[in-house]
Specification:
Pfam families: DctP. The protein is α/β, with parallel strands linked by helices. Helix content is 45%, strand content 17%. It is globular, with a radius of gyration of 25 Å.
Length: 339
């Protein structure tokens, strides 16, 4: 009788247990980045914003641990590390990998171009939705773009005043990527290939006279300590960084979490652009004050004439030909990037 009673109790308890809600398994995803945590700029702050929003929007079920400052993968290692599953999220400096991501580097072939930081992010979102080749290019490396981080509107930071194209003749200007070497030559200047970390010393020692950059980045790298003229040459926003996921990690998300990530990617561009605008405004005020940087206008019509130079047009055609070979209707994209 006692055994029968115990069996009944066990059966009842089992039945109750089966009807209780089972707590969902919490997951901690990994974000690998080259950015230092304490950088305090729009890139670092917006990364933390994404992480905080992800936890909030998943109801605290999931979170992301950030491995800052290249502690897991250096800048040049992030695409391969992310593809291999070392991280689930990561930020990729797209122009550093032109052979891997030519389609996703479209903007880099069209400098100058007329669009702002936020507009370039919106265009990248649109192109990924409209043209599957953009996603397919990343999928070859087991990557998925979930957000976009264009850089700010660029001008020229110089060690001497520049008022027109004629003032650029013979100057040495830092160059990189696709469009800048041809554009600098078309302006009558000499392109000099120097990486970001070496540009401060190059400006200080007069190895170069100018570098393309925006105010926030110029302050971040402290170039404005050694170059005191910012030329508002309307080069447009540069691209920039992909916020990417390991494709297997993305495909492994449940539908609800995937929806959170997709929406966060869209919201990220707005938040990042707002932070970047705030940074730029602060820097411009500092330039007026203790930093003593003179901001100078540059005639847009003179730059527009330079865009017609055969060297500049040849670079643009490189991208058009490659995109066309991939089946992308390139002219539709080019229309958005015409200066």
């Amino acid at each position: 009788m006692i055994r029968s009673y115990l069996k009944t109790v066990r059966a009842s308890l089992l039945g109750i247990a089966l009807t209780l809600p089972v707590a969902a398994h919490a997951t901690t995803y990994k974000w690998i980045t080259f950015k230092p945590q304490g950088a305090g700029d729009a890139q670092a702050i917006s990364t933390q914003w994404f992480v905080d929003e992800f936890k909030k929007r998943t109801g605290g079920k999931d979170d992301i641990q950030v491995f800052w400052g290249g502690s897991v993968a250096k800048t040049g290692e992030i695409p391969d590390s992310l593809a291999a599953g070392v991280g689930d999220f990561g930020d990729i400096i797209t122009p550093y990998f032109p052979d891997k991501f030519p389609l996703n580097n479209a903007v880099g072939f069209f400098i100058p171009q007329p669009n702002s930081t936020l507009k370039i992010a919106e265009l990248m979102e649109e192109w990924h939705k409209k043209y599957p080749q953009f996603d397919a290019e990343l999928a070859r490396y087991n990557l998925k773009a979930i957000g976009y981080r264009p850089l700010e509107d660029y001008g020229l930071l110089c060690t001497k005043p520049v008022k027109s194209v004629s003032d650029l003749k013979g100057l040495r200007i830092r160059s990189y990527g696709f469009a800048y070497p041809a554009l600098i030559e078309a302006l009558g200047a000499t392109p000099v290939s120097i990486n970001t970390a070496e540009a401060y010393e190059a400006l200080e020692r007069s190895i170069i006279d100018c570098t393309p950059i925006g105010p926030a980045l110029a302050r971040g790298w402290k170039y404005d300590e050694v170059a005191k003229y910012y030329i508002e040459m309307p080069l447009g926003a540069s691209f920039g960084h992909l916020i990417a996921m390991n494709l297997d990690s993305y495909n492994g998300l449940d539908d609800a979490t995937k929806a959170v990530v997709d929406k966060l990617g869209e919201d990220y561009a707005v938040e990042y652009s707002k932070l970047l605008d705030e940074d730029t405004a602060k820097v411009l005020e500092m330039w007026k004050g203790e930093l003593g940087v003179t901001v100078m206008p540059f005639p847009r019509d003179e730059l527009a004439k330079v865009v017609e130079d055969p060297r500049v047009q040849a670079v643009r055609k490189q991208w058009i030909d490659r995109a066309t070979a991939e089946g992308v209707p390139a002219e539709e994209i080019v229309d958005e990037l015409k200066f």
